[in-house]
């Protein structure tokens, strides 16, 4: 079971739900490969790095993840679930909670950065400087 997690926050260059959509898109791709189920996205995460964010604080985010984990085990009778996090700002809270609950955790941005996003970001800055 994949549990996409995002946030709802201001950003100058994209929709407020960008991180949530990113987590859901990655979950859909992963599901095609491994055949696992996907819960509906939680687009309501803790976002301490943004000026405007709508959603819970860290304690509420922990509680939401705990309740979802309980439901996955009790109602769906699944023993394995992974939180697929599309937001970097609450990474420590979400990762720590997932670990405490026995859930897997993967932050989409860790993967994007590992695959060279920083290099791409530097190229974009260099192009802007050339203009």
Detail the poorly predicted runs.
none
How helix-rich are the residues, as a percent range?
Answer: 40-55%
Number of helices: 5
What's the alpha carbon Rg, rounded to whole Å?
16 Å
Oligomer: single chain
- Spell out the helices and strands N to C: EHHEHEHH
CATH architecture: 3-Layer(aba) Sandwich
What structural category characterises the helix and strand content?
mainly alpha
Q: What distinguishing features does this structure have?
A:
131 residues; mainly alpha; Rossmann fold; three-stranded parallel sheet; 50% helix
Short note summarizing the structure:
By secondary structure, the protein is mainly alpha-helical. It has five helices and three strands; from the N terminus they run βααβαβαα.
């Amino acid at each position: 079971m994949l549990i996409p997690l995002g946030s709802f926050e201001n950003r100058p260059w994209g929709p407020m739900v960008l991180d949530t959509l990113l987590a859901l898109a990655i979950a859909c791709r992963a599901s095609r490969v491994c055949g696992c189920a996907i819960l509906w996205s939680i687009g309501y995460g803790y976002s301490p790095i943004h000026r405007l964010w709508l959603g819970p604080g860290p304690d509420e985010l922990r509680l939401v993840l705990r309740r979802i984990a309980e439901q996955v085990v009790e109602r769906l009778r699944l023993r394995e679930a992974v939180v697929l996090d599309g937001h970097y700002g609450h990474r420590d809270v979400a990762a720590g909670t997932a670990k405490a609950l026995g859930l897997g955790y993967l932050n989409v941005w860790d993967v994007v950065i590992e695959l060279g996003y920083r290099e791409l970001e530097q190229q974009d800055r260099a192009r802007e400087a050339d203009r």
